[in-house]
Prior knowledge:
50% of the residues lie in helices and 17% in strands. By secondary structure, it is α/β, with parallel strands linked by helices. The protein has one domain: Rossmann fold, CATH 3.40.50.300. A 5-stranded parallel beta sheet has the order 2-3-1-4-5. The chain is globular. The two termini are 12 Å apart. The structure holds adenosine-5'-diphosphate.
Amino acid sequence: MKYQTILIFGAPGSGKGTQGKALGLLPGFFHFACGDVFRSLDTTTDVGQAFLEYSSKGELVPDEITIRLWAGRIKQAVESRDFRPSLDYLVLDGIPRDVNQAALMKDEVDVRAVFHLTCPDREQLILRLKNRALKDNRFDDANEQVIRKRLETYEAESRPLLDYYDRSIIHTIDALQTPARVMLEILQVVTKLKR
Ligand code: ADP
């Protein structure tokens, strides 16, 4: 049985994490934030080292490493019953991040809805990321050059994912609205999904 999946998609700074976290608080939703999992790794391990190396340049961690980490963490969550695949939707934030990752995951996930948080104004995104750097301990947000590289990586590698999924499941949401408004739009779709 494939995991019934909701994908939160958008550029760095578009608010994926905020929405994913909020949705994950509701019973029936399990939130997986790929960046958070990478940041929680022991930096002396091989995967932790790979994360530091690539994220500090604004690049993606290689797909095989990322997908192996994802699969391992999901397995753990199923075993601990934090994620009950027969009851819960899997809310993915930050993964898949390119078409190859989506292909590697396709036998395990059934993507029911993709929420594309859009913000055409790049400078607004950069401002949000810089503010986040001040609050959280995010070295990849602190440097404007790395931020710009991440936005380029998003355009080149992540955005093409929007063509990978069927248009009928893609929901475009204006990321500059208040978080509550964005959540409302997500919930309007999610509450209509049938298992
Ligand atoms: P943002 O949404 O601001 O890009 P994330 O916390 O999602 O922040 O990711 C931070 C960094 O972690 C990325 O720039 C990338 O280097 C790495 N990363 C996160 N998710 C993935 C993924 N699915 N594949 C490859 N690298 C990833």
